[in-house]
Structure formats: structure tokens, C-alpha cells
Amino acid sequence: MFCSKKKSLEVERIVKANDREYNEKFLYKDNRIHTSKYNILTFLPINLFEQFQRVANAYFLFLLILQLIPEISSLTWFTTIVPLVLVVTMTAVKDATDDYFRHKSDNQVNNRQSEVLIDSKLQNEKWMNVKVGDIIKLENNQFVAADLLLLSSSEPHGLCYIETAELDGETNLKVRHALSVTSELGADISRLAKFDGIVVCEAPNNKLDKFTGVLSWKGSKHSLNNEKIILRGCVLRNTSWCFGMVIFAGPDTKLMQNSGKTKFKRTSIDRLMNTLVLWIFGFLICLGTILAIGNSIWENQVGDQFRTFLFWNEGEKNSVFSGFLTFWSYIIILNTVVPISLYVSVEVIRLGHSYFINWDRKMYYSRKATPAEARTTTLNEELGQIEYVFSDKTGTLTQNIMTFKKCSINGRIYGEVRDDLDQKTDMTKKKETVGFSVSPQADRTFQFFDHHLMESIELGDPKVHEFLRLLALCHTVMSEENSAGQLIYQVQSPDEGALVTAAKNLGFIFKSRTPETITIEELGTLVTYQLLAFLDFSNFRKRMSVIVRNPEGQIKLYSKGADTILFERLHPSNEDLLTLTSDHLSEFAGEGLRTLAIAYRDLDDKYFREWHKMLEDANTATDERDERIAGLYEEIERDLMLLGATAVEDKLQDGVIETVTSLSLANIKIWVLTGDKQETAINIGYACNMLTDDMNDVFIIAGNTAAEVREELRKAKENLFGQNRSFSNGHVVFEKKQSLELDSVVEETVTGDYALIINGHSLAHALESDVKNDLLELACMCKTVVCCRVTPLQKAQVVELVKKYRNAVTLAIGDGANDVSMIKSAHIGVGISGQEGLQAVLASDYSFAQFRYLQRLLLVHGRWSYVRMCKFLCYFFYKNFAFTLVHFWFGFFCGFSAQTVYDQWFITLFNIVYTSLPVLAMGIFDQIALDTSYWTVINHVFIWGSIATYFSILFTMHSNGIFGIFPNQFPFVGNARHSLTQKCIWLVILLTTVASVMPVVAFRFLKVDLFPTLSDQIRQWQKAQKKARPLRSRKPQTRRSSSRRSGYAFAHQEGYGELITSGKNMRVKNPPPVSGLEKTLYNSTSWIENLCKKTTDTVSSFSQDKTVKL
Amino acid sequence: MKRKSQDCKSRLPDNSAVKQQQLPAFRLQLSANEILSGFFATGVFCLGMGVILLLSAKSIKEIEINYTEKCASCAKLREDATNFDKECNCSISFYLPQKMEGNVYLYYKLYGFYQNLYRYILSRSNIQLLGTDVKDVRNCAPFKTSDKGLPIAPCGAIANSLFNDTFVLLYNPDSSTQIEVPMMRTATAWWTDKYVKFQNPTYQNLSHAFEGTAKPPNWPKPVYELDEEDPRNNGFINDDFIVWMRTAAFPTFKKLHRRLHRIDNFTEGLPAGSYSFIINYNFPVSRFQGQKALVLSTLTWSGGSSLFLGLAYLVTGAVTLLAFFSMMAVHLKLKERKTFFLQ
Fold first, then answer.
1. Residue B126 in contact with residue B266, Cβ under 8 Å?
2. Cα–Cα distance measured from residue A67 to residue A78, given in angstroms and rounded to the nearest whole number
3. Which of A697, A921, B1, B290 qualifies as a cystine partner to B285, CB 3.0-4.6 A?
4. Is the pTM of this model over 0.80?
5. pLDDT of A858-889, one tens digit each?
6. Does the structure show a pLDDT above 70 at A1?
7. A874 — phi, psi (to 5°)?
């Protein structure tokens, strides 16, 4: 990248807090961003320079210069300059408007207010005036203005919560915490103003999850890592305020470094047109040369003796020189083979198509009042050529809403609506929602449809109660009561939020917690449980447990986690229930629900005390502490009693499944690129039918080193080719089907496929040069590719890879700032609008509110645009060749003297006025279905209108009146009158029409008979059916597969257990009650270190999963 | 809230047919039978048209007399431009085997004369020819002014190269008698040219009007002496001049020169018999290997004697019918197979 090159000088960054003068020495960029290209002064030169870089414009400029040379000029200058000025002006106006909006959005961002500590006072300052080294104050729900070093916050121990959805698409909250030395500063302005620490850190880069630096303050040095940095683009949550010191500002921030460069996007038709123009130019030169040679010969043989009538100038007596001049004259005359109006027309057509997209009611999302928007007007026809779709997950495929859908308790499924015939039907909105009279806190938005569950609760089924109690107890949710007395849950994992909310609505309300207790309301009665131990979640363990003592004194271990893990630790007596529950789990998984298994264990008091003692020892141990703790966890989490399972729906956007299905039918490959976890991504893959159990194989690449990745790729490839060989007859080739049974064709193209799942770390290795091709080859063989845990830049790299090596047209769709770079680097970027963040939309070429509109955009607008554009180009080139070649042939009759057959007015107007509208109308309004063009009224109006215009202009120009006024310009008086009264003129017109139309009709007729296309066959078939029967709609059936698959997916981060048990994240208003039970209270630094270590471990432990077949 | 709902409404695209791309569309979808019958009809029509055109072109009586070779001595004389004031006549006899009925037209025909050269065509002044400003010679290079610096009228290369041979057609009913065939020298140009595009300057005396101008260098006499007998055919509005000024598109062309005046012996047209042309040979063509000819011809409704249009119709019709038969054969043969498929 250009900017990184320029910045390569900066090896490390030195920033001193509250010292602008000191920091100015380094000339760091300030916080102003500009994505715009021009300003008022530079607009004209830069824009013109850009425009004349286009082959066509340069060509016409060159022609114009030629025409100004009188020796050569065979056409007057206005034939070229009028269209040229028109084109250049139109493009310039469009560019100016685009840039104006960029300026506007830049200004809007740059003028956001933030509180900056200046001269020992907090002052409101615009974002753009924030400088490196400034200390700024952020408040809850505010966007972070720059990359900050967190100094202090309202929360205890300098903690603060941020949402990084704009950066990586993850919506769960993340914790950042200040150094203890700085967190003591608190909100003390005077002390903050005196803060003069110096930060020495890495130069600006685009790594979102890495930061290294050192803070030197008061003579001591403190090392800094990513956990102390808040990045621009994040939103502060659940933290009333925090102070931070600006480290990177404006274009140096990691968000901006990740956003990639704005590229000028071109469609393949653009490129084709440019090559065509070059070819035609070559053709033109050939014609010119032939005619020039002809002229030289003619001059030599005939013209030489013709001087009686024309006294040539002395210099022109040379026939070779005359030929040279003739060459240029003919270049001018024949230039209409590439008429400049082609470019105007193409732009106009694209603009028209863009408006159709904007106007489309079928792409209007009424709930958010968002119409689709074509933000770039030049890419429409490319939409019809898309081969690869790269989609973000969160917010694009999913709504990012988790809902508790179903559960299986003690072998019975709840949440499935059964009608009278006791047949399972999907829950429909018509069914009445279960009235949660039990729970006064019931959430109105919660929808659960099974009365049986309510009955069971009211009947007091102990298993059901235990199940719900577990949901209310075993989690890391924090609760808070707002002023209205309503409970607000702060969740760091949306799954848990769904579960706790479900329990709340079903009468088991989680009220509050302290480090040692959890208070819940069980069907109206408050019960306080003692929290004895918290066995935290980790990606490796894939489960979490709590050990609580109920008021009766019983000690219980409640556990929830991945079914595969939990089922191994069940008590043998659970066998029957296990089979039943796992059937239910597969059913849930088959529906794409995210499942968790739920189990408990009654603990003996004595046993627990022993265990707890050992845990304490392990905690204080210096060596192998983690291993020992893990061992103890393993030890107690066994002989569990299965309660059941939960199924949470990561709600897909409406119509995602249908869209995915029809796009794959159109042979468009969909790749999911997400920053989310592997399980979640896979789960969504299944939920939208991108991954199916029918797939021959699903490859998972999760290697940690380059060698591992290479090995995994090799294996997968071997596997793929091996299977292909053995199943070669099963592999579907797109053979021409004679049969008309559409359904069978559909079925076969969908089946027999592979999927690839790769995570970010492996991807980083796989994108290295030597494995790149393997990866690409493998990925392109697969029907579905899911990349998880990828950074924004990796998303762009994947897109670039496919773009570069497959030569395929790509589309990227996403909603957040983390998708910006991929949106920019794909041929076409689509932003999901109607969300809070605007970055994706601003960077996109098209935006609409729902993923499902992609179908209409690609399959209707894209296809129509492409077909129309192709027809338009064929028509246009045909008409101009026909028009221009006349002059070539006439050259042989007029001594190659560059005499035109048509008058100059006709030449000027032919493309602009006479023939432009019918072609345009075809290009804009032509309706296509079943490969048949439909002529609309507008086509008729334009064609007959153009003919009328032609004749009226003709008669005007050939009239006596205009000759009287401009005898030199319009010497055509009487021509039209005398020629059009000749009968043979009309006979020739008639004959020409017949001779031009007949071959086409005959060709089409024979083609339908001899080589019918699919649409021909359908038409025939429709005709045979007499009446058009609507094609049977192919609803993607919800599969209920027999094969067992875990639907485990849990957006949860490790480390929250410790946060809770240590009580560090509890407000001071809830002082930890002194409990009888001794608890190991780590000192604050140690648990924070733990937390940090574990969060960084998350990824590595996660990637140890290796290649696993699901 | 209310405003918001209005907002929603305004952002919802209009439900008009144009915007929703639901304009009523016309689809020309012809069935096989319609296409086949269309082909048949077109073929038959074209054939018929071709036959009619050919018959009518054949009905034209036309005779062409090329006098380039026969007047070789005159041609030789004219090769030297200095001999412009020496007269040279030449006589050509010919025999008309069939009488020419109705209106008969006399054309002169030039071979290899490039009236369509780019520079040549530009070299004229429409303003001057309109009579408004006789001295306007702007576009007339290289024939703008005479050696003395006077503007040339009419200026330009086209006017300078005016075809200036004159002809007398004699009818010899027997070997001793010679009757001059009466010819009309007017109404050979387009009406618009004669009355709109070309006008003499308004002066009582035409020669006064052209005072201060020079004659074109190739002309033996000035423009106001082109037809001294008929003032309505003199100067710029001389029909011969106007006809010449309307440049021909191809290097071989014929231009209308005279019309038969149907009086006395010639009320029916030109009777069969022997004729002779007395040619006053002025226009040099041998320098550029050109040829000159005279054409006597009658006309029909479809134009001249060219067979091209008739033949083109005939060929098109034949090809269309051929296509019709082969298409029908293919269609019938495949129809059985197709019905089999559709079951």
C-alpha cells in the first residue's frame, strides 16, 4: 500500500502525553481522515487527467487535434468536440458529486465532538483536531475517536467494556483494562493533566489483535499490550466513562489501516470495450492505410492527369505525401466506428439501470424504510457475471439475535408445536405465544410457543425446574436494575443472554449476583444460592460449570457445554436418556440450531470440601498450575446427570436460505468470511443450507504452523481427488440435459459436493505464496467455503486471491467496518444498510437492507443489465460499422479523396440524435424472459419518434428557408424533395429491409428446430401444456437428517468466571459480603494477567482442534 | 412519529410501471406456421416485383453513342489548353432501329471524370450563386480570383470545369434530307435549384451585374453569355450550368442535357431511321483517359434502364423461397421427433 510505504520510515512511535509540542516533532498524522479524492483546486486537473487516461477519451482528443489541421481535416471540428465535451462534462459532474458526498461524510466524521483534556480542562473538540498524545474522555455508547491507550475508567480496576462489531464483527463485549498505575488517576482532571508518560510503541499497522509498547512514567516502565488499547471504531459499553491517551490518530489508526485503498472499479465490459476500442483502432489504421495506398496509386495514375480541373499546390504533387494526408483524413472520417456517443450511451444505460435498482420496491425494506441503493452507477452489468459471493456472517446472514427456540428436558421436546394430528409442524407466527403469567418480568419480545412446558412448570416437574434453575444459575451474565425497576442483563455472550432470558420468562428469574452468591426468583420466591466454585468456560473444555449450595444446604454442580464433551462425562445410568436426548440434539442440529447439553451433579459435602482444598492448593501452586486446575475440573465434572439440551437460534435474516439456494442454483459460489468462532460459523453454514449432511466431505483446516497447514491441505486434496476418482460417475458434469424435468436437474447440481472450513491462523499461512495455489484449488472445488476468525485484511486477501488467480468476478457483502476492505477489493461491494455503522455502506457499490435482496440484485437486475448491455453493444457496433464502412467503399469511387457520402450534419447527428434513443431504449427498457426480448411502449415511442425526428430534421435542413439564412452551411435545398419522390428509392429501402431481416429470422427458426436451448424447450413445453403452468416453487426443505451432528456453538469467551468470582467487575454498591466459605482472592494484577493470558490463549487452544471431520 | 411514517412513505419507491420495470411489453413471437407463410409470401412478392421491374426496364429504349474515339482529332487539339479558341467540330452518324416513343431525353455521359473529389466538391460558393454577393469567393480555392486579382464568377473548380460541348442532332429520313431535331434546353434542372439555389444578381443588365468579376479561366465566354437568347436561362440560372453544378456521386455519370421538343415530325417521339450528331468538341477528356458519350433515352415509372433493382428483387425472392422450402423440410422432419420428446 502506498501509505504504508511512505510510513515505512517510522520504525517506532514515541508519544508523550499532554505534550503537543513534543509530539509535533514527529509529524504524526492528526485525527482528520479524508477519503475524498479532490478538492476545489485539484479537481479540474486531476479529474481531466484521469478522464483522458481512458483510451477512448484520449483517442477523441487526438482526433480533435487532427481535425484542427486544415490539410487533413475532412470533417469539421464540431463533429468531435460536441460529443467529447458532453462526455467529459457528464463524467466530471458525476465524479464531483461522488466526491462531494465523500467530503460530506468525512466532514461528518471529522466534526464529531469529543472531550479532550486541553490546558488542564476538558474541552469539546472536533475529532479532526484531536492530536496524538492528547488525553480524551469517552462516555458510554460513544464511538472511540482514535486508537487510545486506556488510562482509567469508571469501573473498578480500570476496566472498560467495548464492542468491536465495527472492527471484527463480533458483538460480544470485550474487556479492556488500564495499567494499575494509570487507573489510579481516575477522573481526577488535575492529575490527568499532569500525566506525562511517554509511550514507545510499534509503528502504525493493520494488526487488530496485536500491540506492543512500553509506557515510561515516573521513572518506571510498564509494558503495554493489546488489552490496554481501545481502537477507533469500537463503542464503549457498560462503562460510564473512561480516559485514554491517543496513540494513533486518523489515517494511522488500525481501523483506517485496515480499510484498504479506494480502487477505481471497472467492469469486465469496460475492459472489453477498451480492448475493442484498441482493436477497432487497429482496424481503423488498416483501413486508413489501404485507402492511403489507394490514394497514392490513384494520384499517380489518374489524379496526376486530372490537374486541368484542380490545380494542386506544388507540395502536394507528390503522390506519397498526398497518401499520407489522406490517411489522416480517413482516420477522421472513419472514427465513427468507435463513436464517442458509445461512452455516453453506456453511461446513460448504466445510470438508468441504477435507478431501476433504487426504485425497486421488491428491494425495499419497509421495516427500516430503506430502499436499495446503487451507489456506484457503473457496475450494473457486472452483477450478472458474479461467480463468487463473499459474505460476512454477523449482521449479514444473521440478524445477530439469539432466540431460545426449543429444549429437550428429560427426553421430551418442548417448543415444537403439534397440531391435532400430532404431526410436527414448524412453529408459525399464527400460534399464540405462551402466556407468561408466571413471570411478571416476562419479556414481551420473547416468543415461545409450547404450552406443555408451562404445564410442566406449573405441575412442578422437578426435572423441568432443575433445568430452568440451571439456566438461571450457570452463566456469566451480570444483572442491573434500571430506574423503572426492570432487570437489564449485561451479557458478553448472546447465547447466554438468550438462555437466561428464557429462564426468566419461564419463571426462573436471575436477579443479582455477588462474587459468592447468586439470587434467583423461582416462581415468585427469592432464593439465594451460594456460589462455591466457578469452573470457567474455555474453548478447549467447551463447557462451563458452577458449584452452588442451595438454601437447603445441598451442593450441586451445574454444567452446560458441548454435547460431545458432556455426554462423555455422564453417569452410566443416563444411557436411555442419552440416546433420546442425542436424537433430539441431532434434530436441533439439523434445523441449524445452536445446541448446548445441560447436566447436573449432586455433590457430597465432604467430597466437595476435599476437592476445594485441592483446588486452592493448585491455585497457589507456582508450577503447572493450569494443568493441575484443569485436572481438578475434569475430576469433579463427571458422573453428571443429564437434564436435557437447549436449542438457540442464531436468527438468520429473512430469506437467507432461499437466497443461498437460488444463488447456488445459479452456480454462484458463496464463501462465508467471518471474524467469528469456528463453531458458530459452521453452525450458520448448516443453518443456511450451505453445509449439509449430504456433503461428501467437509474439510477443516486449522493448523497452527505453515507445515501443518500445508499437510492438511495436501490431505484434503488427496481426499478430494481420491473420492472423486472413486465416485467419478456420481460427480455431476453439466451435461446438456435433453429431459425437461427441471426438478431432477436441480437436485443433481446441488448434491455431491465438498466444503472447506479454514480458520484465520491457518489462512495466514495458507495465503503464503507456495501453498496459495493449493488452497485456491481446493477451495474452488468446494461448494462452500467458510473462513472463520479472519481479520478484515485477510478477508480482502481472500477476495484478492480469488480475483487474481481465478479471474472470476467477485462480490463481497457485509455490514460492518470489518468488511470494508473486502468490499473495496471485490469487483462489487455490497453493504447492508439500515444498521448503525455506515462504513460498509459508504465503501460499497450497492447497498440494501437485507441479504435476501442479493438474489434480485444479481439474478434480475444483474442479468438484465448484462443482457441489455451486450445487446446494446452488438447493436451499437453493428450500426456504426454499417454507417462508417460506406465511406471506406466509397473511397474506391472518389479517388480516395476522403469525400464523405453523408453530409456533415448527418454524421454529427447520426449517433447523437437519429439512432441514439432506440438503442438506449433497448438498453434500458428491454425486458427479458426466457431469452425473449419484450418490447415495451417506450421502445416503440423511441423508434418511431427517432424516425419522425430524422425526417423532420431532414426536411428542415433541406428546406428553402434554412438555405436562405445559411446558404453555406445548409446547401441541401431540394435534395430530400427530389430524391424521396423517386420510386426506386422506396423500392430499395423495401428490398434492403427484407434482405436484412430474412436471414436472421431464418437462422433463429432453424436454431430453434435444430439446436433448441433450454428456454426454447420450456417455451415449447409451455405451449404444449396449452396454458402456462407456474413452475413449481422449490422450497428448500428443512432436512431432518439421520446422521448425528453436534450443533454446539457458543459465543463465549474465557475468563469471565474469574471476573465474577473475584468480584472485580461488580459495582462498589454491592460490597462482597463476607461469607463463611473461604475464597481465594487473587490480587488484582494476577487475575487480570490470567485473563489476558487466557484470552490470548483462546485462539491457540482453539486451533489445536486440527482437521476434524464432523 | 407521524413525521417518521411520512418519511417511510417518501422513501418507498413509487409503484409506477416504469420504475418497477413492469411496462406492458410486446413480444413478437411467431409460430412456425406464421414464419413459414411469411417467408413464402415475401418470396413470391419479391419475385413478382423483380419481374415487373425487369420488364419495365426492358421497355426503355436507349442508345448510347461514344464519341471519344470518333473525334480523336478534336481530342488531340483540346489536349493543348492554348488552343481553346480554335473550334473543332465532329460528326457522328448512327441508326435508330426502333422508334422512341414519348418523351425522349438527351444525356451526356462522362467516363472517369471525378466530380466527387473532396477538394473539387468544396470548391464553390453558394452565396455567390445565390446572387446576393457576386464577389463572395470564400471557399473557391484554387479558383478564387483571376490573374488580375478579380474575383471569378462563378468561382471554384466545379464551375471552371463546366461541360461545354454542344450538340446538334440531325434526322435523316432519306439520304438527302436533314432535319434538325428540335430540342429544349430548359427544365433539365431541379425546380429548387433553378428558382431557389441559383439566382442572378438583381440588375437590369446582366453584364452589369457581373462587373468587376472575371470569367473562370477555362471558359471561353463569361457567365452572362451562356444563353443570350433566353434571359431566363442566362447567367447563374442557366440550366446546363445548374445541372453541372450538381455534382455526380461516381466518376462515371450521365447528366440530362436536352429534352426532345415534340413538334412536327417528332410529336410521337423519335422515329426510327438514321441520325447524326454534330458535336462542337470543347471538353477535354483524353488527358485523364476519360471518355465522352451521348445517350438518347426514354423513361418509365421505375426510372432508367438499369436492370440492377429488378435483378436484386428477383434474387432476393428466389433465395427467400429457397429458404422457405428448406426450413419447411427441416421443420416437418423434426416435428415428429419433438412430439416424441414432449410426451
1. no
2. 9
3. B290
4. no
5. 998 998 889 888 888 888 888 889 898 999 99
6. no
7. -60, -50
CA distance A328 to chain B (A): 14
Q: How confident is the model at residue A1087 (pLDDT cuts 50, 70, 90)?
A: very low
**B126 vs B193: CA distance, rounded Å:** 11
**Residue A991 corresponds to which cell in the numbers above?**
428490398
Counting every residue, how long is chain B?
343
Closest by CA to B286, choosing from B79, B147, B141, is B79
Q: How far apart are CA B39 and CA B113, in angstroms?
A: 43
B:252-281 residues touching chain A, CB 8 A cutoff? none
- B-facing residues of A in 273-312 (CB < 8 A) are 302-303, 305-306, 308-312
3-class DSSP state of A99: helix
| In the block, residue with C-alpha cell 481502537 | A231
- Output Rg (C-alpha) for chain A, integer angstroms: 36
Across A661-695, b (16+ Cβ under 10 Å) vs e yields: bbbbeeebbbbbbbbbbbbbbbbbbbbbbbbbbeb
B134 three-state secondary structure = coil
C-alpha cell at A380: 450494473
Q: Can you tell me the distance from the alpha carbon of A791 to that of B207, in angstroms, rounded to the nearest whole number?
A: 95
Convert the pLDDT of each residue in A651-677 to its tens digit.
Answer: 888 888 899 989 988 888 889 998 878
- What element of type H or E holds B258? strand B253-260
Q: Are strands B166-172 and B179-180 parallel, antiparallel or unpaired?
A: antiparallel
The question of whether A99 is a catalytic residue gets the answer: no
Pairwise CA distance, residues B228 & B179, whole Å: 24
Say whether A982 and B303 touch across the interface (CB within 8 A).
yes
**Which of B1, B14, B20, B26 best tests the A interface by mutation, with the highest count of A CBs <10 A?**
B26
Q: Pairing mode, if any, of strands A641-652 and A398-409? A: antiparallel
Name the residue of chain A whose CA is nearest to B112's CA.
A302
Per the CB < 8 Å rule, is B27 touching A933? yes
Q: Which residue in the set A310, A360, A738 is minimally distant from B120, CB to CB?
A: A310
Which amino acid type is present at position A1081?
L
- Give dist(CA B87, CA B74) in Å, integer: 9
For chains A and B, count residue pairs whose Cβ atoms are closer than 8 Å: 192
Nearest to A173 by CA among A1059, A1079, A1097, A1110: A1059
Answer yes or no: do A310 and B157 touch at CB < 8 A. yes
Q: Do A359 and B27 touch (CB under 8 A)?
A: no
Query: Rounded to a whole number, what is the distance in angstroms from the first to the last CA of chain A?
Result: 40
First to last CA, chain B: 61
Helical residues (DSSP H) of A165-267, grouped into ranges: 165-168, 180-183, 189-194, 254-258
ipTM: 0.90
DSSP structure class, residue A157:
G
Q: Which residues have a Cβ under 8 Å from the Cβ of A27 and sit 6 or more positions away?
A: none
Q: What is the 3-state secondary structure (H, E, C) of A267-293?
A: CHHHHHHHHHHHHHHHHHHHHHHHHHH
Q: Report yes or no: B19 at the A interface, CB cutoff 8 Å.
A: yes
* Torsion of Cα atoms, A74 then A80 then A82 then A87, to 10°: 170
Of A815 and A1095, more confident:
A815
Alpha helices per DSSP H over chain B = 2-11, 32-58, 72-79, 118-122, 126-129, 157-160, 191-192, 206-209, 239-245, 308-342
Mean pLDDT value of segment A256-273: 73
Confidence of residue A1085 (pLDDT cuts 50, 70, 90): very low
Is residue B299 less than 8 Å (CB to CB) from chain A?
no
Q: Is A974's CB within 8 Å of B12's CB?
A: no
Q: How far is CA A147 from CA A26, A229, B329, in A?
A: 17, 7, 79
